[in-house]
């Protein structure tokens, strides 16, 4: 079974721009969670989607948003990029809502200049 | 108090020794506890999960959970240089969110 895939793997943007990251979960998995990882803050939860509905949300500003499609693929969007948004963005999938065992994709490394 | 706390390390052990990694948490309603390993430049990979008090063994890895004391630990027996990585403790709290510690960097010296 193929693992979680994320695109793109690397991205360079400038301040003020917006970015969209994509995640395809493991086949059959319906829950997708997004995390931001930085050296100073570690892994921080952004949001979780299940059946196209946001189930949980972390403490990030409204510039961070996401959505999930009927095929369980998910996208996250960051608008008005700031330098501090430079991070590794990780997507994780699990088989169902409340199934906590999550499997991570390779991540998208975003650099904001 | 932070929700999930880990000693950032680095923890350095010689090859063949036992590495002990610890994690404490603040939410008494936490139900599920996970250990992930993350190699430099890679994404986290699940090593073990534990739900009940006591020990759970999987090969060279043993997870230990003590809910009364609010700590969970990971023991790695016969440590190998390939075990050198950052180990992340993750806990599902009463809000059903998975919260990660900042990780402990383990170095196994040949």
Structure description:
The complex is a heterodimer of chains A (113) and B (110). Chain A is mainly β and 113 residues long. Chain A contains no helices and eleven strands. In chain A, strands 2, 4, 5, 6, 9, 10 and 11 form a seven-stranded mixed sheet that branches. In chain A, a hairpin with a 3-residue loop joins strand 4 (31-38) and strand 5. The model of chain A has no long low-confidence stretch (mean pLDDT 93). Chain B has 110 residues and is an all-beta fold. Chain B starts with a strand and ends with a strand. The mean pLDDT of chain B is 93. The A-B interface holds A 33, 35, 41-45, 48, 55-56, 58, 88, 90, 98, 100-107 and B 32, 34, 36, 42-46, 49, 88, 90, 92, 95-103.
What's the SSE blueprint?
The complex is a heterodimer of chains A (about 110) and B (about 110).
Chain A: E1 5-7, E2 10-13, E3 19-24, E4 31-38, E5 42-50, E6 53-57, E7 64-68, E8 74-78, E9 87-94, E10 103-104, E11 108-112
Parallel strand pairs in A: 2-11
Antiparallel strand pairs in A: 1-3, 3-8, 4-5, 4-9, 5-6, 7-8, 9-10, 9-11
Chain B: E1 4-6, E2 11-14, E3 19-25, E4 32-38, E5 45-50, E6 54-58, E7 61-66, E8 71-76, E9 85-92, E10 98-100, E11 104-109
Parallel strand pairs in B: 2-11
Antiparallel strand pairs in B: 1-3, 3-8, 4-5, 4-9, 6-7, 7-8, 9-10, 9-11
Summarize this entry quickly.
With 113 residues, chain A is mainly beta.
Radius of gyration of chain B: 13 Å
The computed structural class of chain B is: mainly beta
SSE class of chain A: mainly beta
Share of β-strand residues of chain B: over 45%
The residue-averaged pLDDT of chain B reads 93
Q: What is the succession of H and E elements of chain B? A: EEEEEEEEEEE
Oligomer status: heterodimer
How helical, in percent, are the residues of chain B?
under 10%
* Fraction of residues in H or I helices of chain A: under 10%
Report low-confidence residues of chain A grouped into runs of 5 or more: none
Name the largest protein-protein interface in this structure: A-B, 22 and 21 residues
Give the radius of gyration of chain A: 13 Å
Compute the separation of the termini of chain B in Å: 37 Å
